[in-house]
Amino acid sequence: MTNRYYFLGHETLSNRGCEALVRGISSIIYERSPDAEFLVPSFNVENDSKQWVAENEHQVSFISAYKMPLYVRIWGKLDRTAPQLSRLCFPSPSIPKDIQQYLNDTTAGILTGGDVLSLEYGIPSLLKFLGQAESYMAGGRSVFLWAASVGPFSSQPDIEKYVVKKLTAYAGISVRETSSYNYLNQLGLDNVKLVADPAFVMKPDPWDTSIALPDEHGEGLLGINISPLIKSFRGNQSHVLEMEKAVVDFLRDVIKRTNFSIVLIPHVDSIDGSDWNSDYCYMLHLMKQLDLPQDMLVARICLAPRRMNAVQTKFLISQCRFFIGARTHATIAAWSTSVPTVSISYSIKALGLNTDLFGDLSYVLETPRISRNTLWESLEKLRADEEKIKNLLQLKIPQWQQRAREAADQVLPAIE
User: Fold this and answer.
1) What is the rounded CA–CA span in Å between residue 113 and residue 307?
2) CA angle 379, 223, 116 (to 5 degrees)
């Protein structure tokens, strides 16, 4: 019997968080079902296949992903101008026939977690992924939502009602934060399981990090991940420049006022080298604004290379003494390797994960609050609470890794 799974909702490995989800989920299933195979959609099969090095034993194959259909983009424009008309009918784009042919003998579809079922990327994106799942189920197959952050859609009741209707058809739903779990339960969904993000079980891949680190380590390494997405939280260009100056000033403060060295670590970066949504390009832009002697820069601060995959990036993060990160899965990589971390939050994901892990938001810096002083205070908080944080992580992470594996309980019994 075929034991092959199709990853709905995935499109590229450019985001190492998406890569971490696929690696984590495939590893969890593979542990319990060694004959499992996986079909992973990709906008660039050749490049993604190269990035997947050392994981081919999990029988992962990349197949073509499909872009947003034109009629959904047109609907999106109409929705912005005349929602009273657009909301009369929601588009439900199906999987194209040229891709459907690869899915005939698949066992189940796994809609990868993350936040694809949210308003983070716009309503057309949400409808695309909902339509993709509905199209897959039309062949009599099951879809499982795995370790997701869902919604909230409270601000748009018609969207909320539509999403609930679609989710009721899923064979299983697992979510990675209590906030998502409570939200879906309040909406009347009774097939929801609270788990942990599968990236917690992804193992780092050791490599020679000397080429990615400053010459001196001093008191240890401070890892920093800054995403260009944080710019969207400043109302105009002058405020963006003000925030960027705050980050640059903070980097300078660390070098001048401490013995820490800094490694800037990208977690989203296009595999084809473009600068769109690239952490690498954005942090390079910030680093160029440091007016420090060249020998000091070489000794104390470094921008990690942009060709690292998710497991290599996780290993580099594990070498840090402290970490301050914007990308959710960069912080998960740090937590799961016992690195005390402050999350720069730009969405509900960081808030939910921190609340579940620490019980509060002590180690969260919300993006609108970024300043030279708040960044320094965040570092000082990590230094003061270092042992407490490490002890808590060493206690809780094994529990969270077990919870991450429990997401498979919905999927495997259903197809055995």
Assistant:
1) 24
2) 100
151: left (phi over 0), alpha (psi -120 to 50) or beta: left
β-pair partners for 148: 114, 175
DSSP state of 57: G
Say if CB 125 and CB 68 are below 8 A apart: yes
**Best CA proximity match to 267, nearest among 321, 218, 323:** 323
Q: What letter represents residue 21's amino acid? A: L
Contact 317, 339 (CB under 8 A): yes
Res 331: pLDDT: 96
Tokens of 385: 């609470």
Q: b/e string for 356-375 if b means 16 or more Cβ within 10 A?
A: bbbeeeebbbebeebbbeeb
Residues whose CB is less than 8 angstroms from the CB of residue 159 and which lie 6 or more positions away in sequence, other chains included: 119, 123, 126, 153
Alpha helices for 301-385 (secondary structure H): 310-318, 328-335, 348-358, 372-384
- Taking 50 as the pLDDT cut, the residues of the chain under it are 1, 56, 416
Q: Which domains does the chain have, with CATH numbers?
A: 4-202+401-415 (3.40.50), 209-339+341-384 (3.40.50.2000)
pLDDT of residue 133: 95
Nearest-CA neighbor of 256 among 287, 225, 296, 294? 296
Which amino acid makes up residue 174? S
pLDDT, tens only, 228-262: 887 776 667 777 888 889 999 999 999 999 999 99
Q: Cα Rg for the chain, rounded, in angstroms?
A: 21
- Which DSSP symbol is given to 5? E
Per the CB < 8 A criterion, the answer to whether 343 and 215 are in contact is: no
d(CA 91, CA 72): 6
Tokens of 97: 């026939």
Q: Report yes or no: 37 and 144 within 8 Å, Cβ to Cβ.
A: no
- How far apart (Å, rounded) are the C-alpha atoms in residues 9 and 3? 20
Residue found by looking up tokens 């197959």 in the block: 141
Residue 411 CA to residue 147 CA, distance in Å, equals: 12
- Asked if 404 contacts 24 with a C-beta cutoff of 8 angstroms, the reply is yes
Report CA-CA distances (Å) from 134 to 170, 208, 350: 9, 45, 29
- 112-145 pLDDT, tens digit per residue, is 878 889 988 899 999 999 999 999 999 899 999 9
